[in-house]
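Reopening this one. Same input as before:
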Amino acid sequence: MPIRLLPPNLVNQIAAGEVVERPASAVKELIENSVDAGATRIDLTLNDGGKSLIVVVDNGCGMTSRDLAVAVDRHATSKLPTDDLLDIGFLGFRGEALPALGSVSRLSLTSRTADADSAWHMMVNAGTRQGPVPAPHPRGTRVEVRDLFYATPARLKFLKAAATELTYVIDVVERLAMAHPEIAFSVTADGKSRLNLPVAHTQGDLFDTHLERLTAILGKEFGANAVPVTAERESLRLYGYIGLPTLNRGNAQAQYLFVNGRPVRDRMLQGAVRAAYQDVLASNRHPYVVLFLEVPRTEVDVNVHPAKAEVRFRDAGVVRGMMIGAIRHTLAESGHRASSSVATAALGAFRPGQLPGRPFAVSSPRAMGAAQAYDFYAPQDQQQGLAETPNLFTPQPSAPSVAAEQTPSAEYPLGVARAQVHETYIVAQTPDGIVIVDQHAAHERLLYERMKQSLGDGGVKRQLLLIPEIVELDEARAARLLARAEEMAGLGLVIESFGSGAVAVREVPALLGESDVASILRDLADELAEWDEGMSLQDRLADVCGTLACHSAIRAGRRLNANEMNALLRQMEVTPNSGQCNHGRPTYVELKLADIERLFGRR
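Same output, byte for byte:
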């Protein structure tokens, strides 16, 4: 068959298949144009999940009649003044969205600049243009998309139910709103308000303004349990908020990453978040993260995906290392803090009421017998008959012991131990409430942090193999490993070349014991290809440390005396990440006195 040029409208429909996948894609492109136009308010109206109607109205700079006519041509844009694809300062720059929408829907645009006498109106119906003509409209732009994909009905079959499409649209708007708290956003769907985000008015720095907007989108729980992150390295800047490990969920939908104000779904950045949380969160749980990365325009390529959803960094290793270091440092700085959601869940589990049968009365012999039947051990009771019990904790100079009878003070955030319940939980009194500690989970975290510190202080202890193990790989995988041989030696894994596509393992980390070295190397090679940084060895060392800590920690059912309980509390206060165990579960629950009084109707 002879080669021929495709007609322009067919070319636009093909572009629509790449840029406008669903209503949410159209909304993203249109709102990005509004943001680029300097709008301070953007209103979105939809019907039928965006299938039948999408209207975006903004108060931006607007367009002249000439701009309006050119805007619906392919690859027409005002956002590349120097024609340099490595110097992109706007969200939209390809000039594909409006002509693509006009080829598959009924598109109308009305726009007015600040100094114009009237607005201009233009329509594009399945590629056929009408206008521009004068029309009434205030300063700004109104874009209306009706009957999306009516010109390509086969695409409609791939759309989901209207409610599902609406959730995709709201997610797009929320992501853009997170990056721009200075802009007010609203979403109205089928006549009902679904989202209303006014301009953030918090007086303060950029962190305060962003937190107000993030709290409005992610909820008060996030606002109360998020900690600020900030880091700078060379020409890179990272800031934002991350949730405490005990505030987590079963998927990664609450992870929002932005590069130069652009929402992205980048696998490398997601991998950095996973690596940073790896020893404070179980592998099947995911943290809340909202991070903004500022990179010089010439150091990042945003033109690698038709929808601009992915980016490519010139030096991905530096970016990834900065993210991991900043998140880990922030989590360590949070110390023993755990999310307030833990206490909220605990309070929600209480059901004020009466014991079965009849009201509880202290004077009742039967009730007194029931109370005495509880497995409750006060510190003074444990002192008797436990003189031979070895002290499980050696208080550090920075974590002194506290006598059980001492009055709680702000100097000790986790309070003073008052009792041990069911030989598993420590009950401590604080100045304004009580703290309940899971002794096994808390001690497990303390031991784990000590093991990590010892690895960092003296390096990873190596175990020399009597007979080097030869691992057969393909040449590319072997080359990736050998290129990072020096870094791996720092982790205790000593390798060298052994011919084409083969690697000889001379030494392995002693903590790994009898491990499958070949499997470790293959995993490392695969991860180097995917993330440009091997994590399997760190993961396995972390797993070994975690396992050793779990087996070495005091078990549930072990009676502790007052000094042991208080020593545990003091060490928790000075140990990073002690608010959660190695799997992200809380090590303690704090209940404020005011909340307890409300349970009993005192407030």
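So the earlier flakiness isn't reproducible anymore. For the record, The longest helix spans residues 439-458.
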